[in-house]
What we know:
four-stranded parallel β-sheet, 15% strand, six-stranded mixed β-sheet, 15 helices, binds ligand F0G
Amino acid sequence: MAKGILERYGHLLELPAHTRPLTLLEGDTPLIPAPRLAETLGGGFTLWIKYEGLNPTGSFKDRGMAAAIGEAWGRGARVAICASTGNTAASAAAYAARAGMKAVVLIPQGKVAAGKLAGALAYGAQVVQVLGSFDDALRLVVEITQRRPLALVNSINPYRLEGQKTAAFEICDALGEAPDWLCLPVGNAGNITAYWMGFKQYDSLKGSGRPRLLGVQAAGAAPLVVGHPIEHPETVATAIRIGRPARGEQALQAAAESGGRIIAVSDEEILAMQRLLAQQEGIWVEPASAAGLAGLAAEIRAGRLDVRGQRVVAVCTGHGLKDPQIVTQQMPAPLQIPPHLEALEEILAA
Length: 350
Ligand code: F0G
């Protein structure tokens, strides 16, 4: 029987006793070997994709929401609120629906991928478009929750991290130990912080070891690489279009403590990796989710990372279906033919 993260790992999570067992059977996502892609990146190492796009609402956020909304529900909160570049919104909306709560989600106007906006609406959230950035929306959420009894479910909420660290446990359980490197995209910086908490906890409990962390931002939204907030972040990877990461300090600390680092890659590198992963391994992820792998590729290519003989896990945080337009816009429209065999023959002969 499938189990959600609270049932599988609840005993390892620091959650209040009143937390209710909320679940959509999130987690237990596959760790998929990616041998062809590893070869393309230079070979000599083993690469797995932790495919978090296979969670119930299509992103890793479901782990954190099971915990954070389960906690809010258990203490009698009626309304959950968050700022979001899209995935957090869809996930909060779904888990709130399941708990019989209302969700209010603030999104940057015009900068949220179609599948995420549709998800938030479909699950019945009150969607508010902010004429500003994610960072503006998060500031509003922080300020309003100081005035009103709304449950804030962004990753400032510690229970979000408790839920999300279960992905680190799963990776160790699947491999028998931690990998040598973990690469993943960084936006608001909650996920890299949660992974590091999870790996450290498992290591102290089971001696599973710790990976080095390669956190990857988009070049137009890379506050942790340039060392100061970005007022107007821009990237095709709208999920990580964030200039003032709430958990930035912790993310930098986690990367440094692990012996790893946080780097940036261009939008072109992100889109090229999105294509490569889909076309060489059959794994379609949204642009932000290809950033971790794009960073790995860039570091190997530049000779800054020697992964020979090592085990590398790339976290692919969200499903490709979240943002179909980014693909259809870039590709030539499919050819059209009249319904005649000769026309089909002509195309196949070309
Ligand atoms: N990948 C995807 C697909 C995301 O949606 C996000 C964050 C990240 C990576 C980065 O994770 O913020 O913990 O560093 N999305 C948030 C949202 C901001 O609102 O959905 P992070």
